[in-house]
Write a structure and sequence with these properties.
Elements lengths: L1 E5 L3 H12 L3 E5 L8 H5 L2 E6 L6 H4 L9 E3 L16 E5 L4 H5 L4 E5 L2 H6 L5 E5 L3 H21 L6 H20 L10 H10 L5 H11 L10 H10 L10 H9 L4
Parallel strand pairs: 1-2, 1-3, 3-4, 4-5, 6-7
Antiparallel strand pairs: 5-6
Helix pairs in contact: 6-7, 6-8, 6-9, 6-10, 7-8
Length: about 260
């Protein structure tokens, strides 16, 4: 079976490697290189895997087939409204840097359909399950936001201050999910608390950018920082933000530009 992977960056090729090892025919679409037409990549595919930067998603979804199963592996999406017209939507998320997946380091991911676990089965991957698609999407976006602030604070993993930050950030994530119609308990899955822990430290690009901001508050990112994209959406009111989220409020105060 052919599987079309939309996004040929580090994460897309890491996922493609797993699928190829499982015997699937993989075809990539890389909009940056324009290696091939999107329609050619999609032709004859049984599944479509989306793993492009979140800011690209709105421009791509209108060109994706609504009748093929779509697996969203992009992190940074705060709403499932973008995928409202898709008949068979699944989400794959969780802690796992692309480089570590390619090295076959053990990781646990969250999926919203057991077909995804079957497609990506590997002896170094475990999966937990939920049907809370919105919650999984939101976790994948929010953990990047909080990782920026962890970098600003210069928190080191497993210190008391880091553990307190993780607890506070996870509580705020639960409040955000609940307020926006998702399940607070989804934060307890790999896509939530475990991905938050992984991202709140190096080599996370969001954490690294936070470190840069601590020295230069006006520094603009040289590469894609998904947490910034999500933060801009929050500031534009794309999701509801309950009162009393001290960490998020402080981060929005510090980063006043989009």
């Amino acid at each position: 079976m052919k599987i079309a992977i939309i996004g040929a960056g580090a994460f897309g090729t890491a996922l493609g490697g797993i699928l190829a090892n499982n015997g699937y025919d993989i075809d990539y679409y890389d909009s940056k290189l324009e290696r091939e037409k999107l329609s050619e990549t999609l032709k004859g595919s049984g599944y479509v895997v989306l793993c492009v930067p979140s800011k690209v998603v709105p421009y791509l979804v209108s060109h994706l087939p609504k009748d093929k199963p779509l697996i969203v592996a992009t992190k940074g999406i705060l709403s499932d409204k973008t995928f409202a017209d898709f008949r068979d939507l699944m989400i794959l998320s969780g802690p796992g840097f692309a480089s570590e997946i390619k090295l076959k380091k053990k990781a646990k991911l969250t999926v919203t359909d057991k077909r995804v676990a079957e497609l990506f089965k590997a002896d170094y991957l475990d999966f937990d399950f939920t049907d809370d698609k919105l919650g999984v999407l939101m976790c994948g976006a929010l953990k990047n936001v909080y990782a920026i602030y962890a970098g600003i604070l210069g928190l080191e993993r497993e210190t008391k201050a880091w553990r307190e930050f993780i607890r506070g950030a996870s509580e705020e994530m639960q409040a955000l999910l609940s307020t926006n119609g998702a399940r607070a308990e989804t934060v307890n899955l790999a896509c939530g608390i475990e991905d938050l822990k992984l991202t709140c430290g190096l080599p996370s690009r969001n954490y690294e950018y936070g470190q840069i901001l601590s020295k230069n508050p006006d520094a603009k990112p040289e590469k894609t920082v998904e947490g910034l994209t999500a933060l801009a959406k929050i500031k534009r009111g794309e999701i509801k933000v309950p009162e009393g989220l001290k960490i998020l409020e402080e981060l929005m105060r510090r980063i006043e530009w989009d």
